[in-house]
Design goal:
The protein is α/β, with parallel strands linked by helices and 187 residues long. A seven-stranded mixed β-sheet has the order 3-2-1-4-5-7-6, sandwiched between helices. It has a single domain, classed as Rossmann fold. 30% of the residues lie in helices and 21% in strands. The protein contains six helices and seven strands. Bound molecules: S-adenosylmethionine. The site of S-adenosylmethionine (SAM) has 20 residues, from α3 and β2.
């Protein structure tokens, strides 16, 4: 596991799966424009899978949700929750430093979610390069950061890294008002 200073503690994962969160982050509004049945999608920094399980419902049995995190406690809880919902065959969890191998997903991802994670990642350029590699041509990314933790200037620096990786800013507007952007890998 890489050394990381500002990682979200695993026990905060429980607050992120609180069902009341839907009033702030409505998964249908946020994801439905991008996530369709049969898609292969990525939830990077998935924690206990607040968005992952909604993505599993949206892609259905013909799709797959690759869920990546750096904390196994987050992924263990995600797997339990996926099992309870009958999504074990759709949700594939991958731990950074163990079985997360972005090269194996080269050109496979239709849609990637980077929600409230990039500011925790020490090498953001490497992450955006990996995401670019994993995306299909025409694939999209929803990149969003929490305004309480991340300044606009910091978000802009991260977006510049995404552009440096080869992504472009889409005209599509995300259903998140602040510090959010849709990025595309050109077809
Ligand atoms: C603030 S939480 C957001 C979780 C989730 N995206 C959500 O919105 O519910 C950030 C998550 O990113 C994970 N994380 C931090 N650094 C990471 C890294 N380098 N690679 C993968 N996951 C990471 C943390 O373990 C944590 O689960």
């Amino acid at each position: 596991m890489e050394t990381q200073q500002n990682i979200c503690p695993w026990w905060l994962g429980y607050t992120m799966i609180n069902p009341l969160r839907k009033y702030q982050h409505n998964p249908d509004k946020i994801l439905a424009p991008f996530v369709k049945p049969g898609m292969t999608v990525l939830d990077y920094g998935c924690a206990m899978g607040y968005f992952s399980l909604h993505m599993a419902r949206m892609v259905g049995n013909e799709g797959i949700v690759h869920c990546v995190d750096i904390q196994d406690k987050m992924l263990n809880n995600l797997e339990r929750r996926a099992h309870k919902k009958g999504y074990s065959n759709i949700v594939n969890s991958m731990l950074v430093g163990k079985n997360y191998e972005p090269q194996k997903l080269k050109g496979q991802i239709d849609f990637a979610l980077l929600f409230a994670v990039v500011h925790e990642v020490p090498d953001q350029q490497k992450l955006f390069n990996e995401v670019y590699t994993m995306l299909k041509p025409g694939g999209k990314v929803l990149f969003a950061e929490p305004p309480g933790h991340v300044k606009t200037s910091e978000f802009e620096i991260s977006v510049a890294k995404a552009l440096n990786a080869g992504l472009t800013i889409s005209n599509k507007k995300p259903a998140i008002k602040k510090l959010a952007v849709i990025l595309t890998k050109q077809a």
